[in-house]
Amino acid sequence: MPVDDLRPQDPSRMGAYRLLARLGSGGMGQVYLGRSPGGRLVAVKVIRDEISDHPEALTRFRREAATVETVRSAYTAQLIEASLDASPYWLATEYVPGPTLRGAVTAAGPFPPDSALRLFAALAEGLAAVHVHGVTHRDLKPQNVILSPQGPQLIDFGIARGLDQTFITRDGTAPGTPGFAAPEVVLRNEAGPAADVFALGATLAYTVTGRPPYGSGDPAVVSYRAVHEDIDLEGVRPALAALIRECVAKDPADRPDPAAVIARCAVDTALATDPHYRSLVRDDDPVPVHEAARTAVLPDGPAEAEDAAAPERAPVGPTPYDGADTARSARRRALGLSVCAVVLAASAVVWQLSGPDGGSTGGSGASGASDTSSRPGTTAPSAPAGPPDHILNDRESKDRWTLSEDPGEAGYGMGSCDPASLPMDRLSMNLRSSVSHTTGSDTATVRLRPEESGKGERPAPYYLSVGVRPPHGTDRATGRPTTSVGKGIGFTSKPFDVYSRWSSEGTITLRYPDDFRAHFGDRVVDAIPVGDDRGDWTVVFYHVEGGPTKYTSVVCNGFHA
Length: 561
Prior knowledge:
By secondary structure, the protein is of the alpha+beta class. The protein has helices spanning 55-70, 101-108, 113-131, 183-188, 193-209, 219-228, 238-247, 258-265, 275-280, 291-295, 407-410; strands at 13-14, 17-25, 29-35, 41-47, 79-83, 90-94, 135-136, 145-148, 151-154, 161-162, 297-298, 301-302, 342-343, 400-403, 415-418, 431-436, 444-450, 463-469, 472-474, 481-485, 491-492, 496-497, 508-512, 517-520, 523-526, 536-544, 551-560. The strands form nine sheets. A six-stranded antiparallel β-sheet has the order 1-2-3-4-6-5, covered by helices on one side. Strands 18, 21, 22, 26 and 27 form a five-stranded antiparallel β-sheet that branches. Strands 13-16-17-23 form a four-stranded antiparallel β-sheet, covered by helices on one side.
């Protein structure tokens, strides 16, 4: 995959190094492919101008340089030179050809189990080599692993620290990446070698499934799942799944150390000889020449650069349905679990988990909805005896889910809803729900259950209808997408009591498009396949408080297709 061309605002040189192309973004700045006067290729990280005046940022950047210089390992790129006394601040490390682990899984799909075990052992050995220097990585994830022909390389030590150092962070945030940061990091900003082992397990879960280990969605919600929920290992070989689960144990004391992981993997051949691994890192042309640099004539002679695989959005592997019924079972398809989880409960997570979009959840998302006096948790009329057969698509919805603009978050399907702050209600306070979509498929799945399902007496009925709105509007006559932005409530499910399965497993499952239709007055339109309208899809839970026109949005989520 080609690297990106330099942009007009990019520097042409850092120190003695001619910059040839963009390799990607690191934790603190932009990373470039550079060439020394003698022709050696290097990776040059330059701290961004907008943060170079921040003492905290400079401290972190200098710590990264010190970390990379300290850690001498076959699993880390070596520091060549750094300029940290005056702006612009930069450091140069050896260039490691090869795709990132995330890019490799994106391009070729999940690793076979035996190949994954060999990678597991190699990464564990890499962590052991880092830990022996008294350093924890703190941000191990698929995009921070480069697959070189000789083996994996750990990169981006932007938030790494020595075990005796105090971590620098902004108030109210936690280090690491949601879904890969360990519970103790998320909750208490406490990290040690065991936190790296947690990230190792999460990284391997992604490697063998192609799915984010704790689902996608709002970063705070993903972090909640990592703290409280099980990791997604659907379809993984039992022995491999068991080892991954040990690595991601909630209690750091229950996790194996890297040496134990290596022993458990029991590999007997080198990763570099593994057929699947070799197919990803073919070294017959390890330094392909970047087209822009091939013909460029620079002041110090012709420049030659190379391509470096940039991470892309991770594909979602297939997982089976959970067996729940659908309205039109003839149209069922296997659906992957790339969970955009809306997990709402009282929690001590560093990010306040008051709503699926980082704010709180509640009504008012649809214009014309009933006022707050009719919402649960306030003075309200008694619940209706039963729900209507459907709700009408008769209004404009203000709730809109969009994919994150941050490439790292977008790669795992994370996004947020607008508006970002809505009033709370009794359902959104204890509802666990998820929206799942397999990249490239025509389907999606919505699952939900009350957190306290099965405990105590069943609450009074609480009726919901789920609305799934495509990126564009719907032609009422044909049911096909229009060119305008979708503004209605979309295709909706038949209203149901969220507590109807209180005494059993409690989980209610809906399949899109099977269980959804749009009701425009007397006209009913079947839901379109997801593949018919690419973009950001919004999923809203509506509290049905009366007839077909009396409903209020209480939870918003979505997915990108």
